[in-house]
From TrEMBL:
UniProt protein name: Alpha/beta hydrolase
Record-annotated AB hydrolase-1 domain positions: 63-200
Alphabetized UniProt keyword annotations: Hydrolase
Entries under InterPro entries matching the protein: AB_hydrolase, AB_hydrolase_1, AB_hydrolase_fold
Gene3D superfamilies in alphabetical order: alpha/beta hydrolase
An annotated Gene Ontology molecular function: hydrolase activity
Superkingdom of this protein's organism: Bacteria
Species of the source: Leptospira saintgironsiae
Amino acid sequence: MNISNLIYSIFILFTVATCSIRQPFQLRETPPTITSEPIEKGLAPIKDIQMYYEIHGNKDGIPLVLLNGGGSTIEVTYSRILPLLAQNRKVIALDEQGHGRTTDRNAPVSFETSAEDVVALLKFLNIEQADIFGFSNGASVALNIAIRYPKLVRKLVFASSITKREGAYPMFWNFMKNATFENMPQALKDAFLKVNPDPKKLHTMYEKDAARMRNFKDLSDKDIRTVGIPTLILLGDRDVPKLEHAVEMVRMIPKARLLILPGGHGDYLGEAIMSQGKDRYPELTSALVQDFLDSP
């Protein structure tokens, strides 16, 4: 893989941490698939889009909502860990605006609008409270939900994301200026086209995600400190977000805990695009996340 492809991988999914760029880059199978069948799936009419969702596992108990990384389908981010999480709980997965099977609207994609879309989906599904696990861009969406709708979220897993531009290494932002659609890893293109075989929609998704990150705006410390629910800050030790940034978040959120796992961006999930491949990482991550969710 040439350096431009590697740069794009960092950009669109926060895939490879700045300090691990020199490591071999591994593509998982293309496109990834989820081994378990959903007990329910469909398109929910959410404002002016049709949002695709799946429900896996046990129908009883507090549901766990999974929010994907940028540029991703459900399968890209959660294909390996979703079946593990669904063994003991109800899991709801979804594609955000313009991603995968969810339709687009004539408006930019943003963390704020995606947060409102997820809230509307939970209302559509008659869910009054849920745990939310967001990865990368999905974590930014999840945090927006926790800030705006504190009664809706019981526990939050904030994985491999940032709340401020300074939370990522400067090289990340410099790379973004030169990222192009042509550099997008084929694994991501294939995963999108497998569920939505329209190249124009794929290109539009890329452009909107690119704009979302180029226009990234900091969350205020005041807003972050309003998060009063138990929160797990999760990242890899060679991730895109700085470890110092994660520590800062733990100090600001009263009930936050910090979990640092080996590897780069997405390694601990067994994501479709990884900087290194360890098949047992998803098992470890699932066990630790479920311990957090099940704790008092």
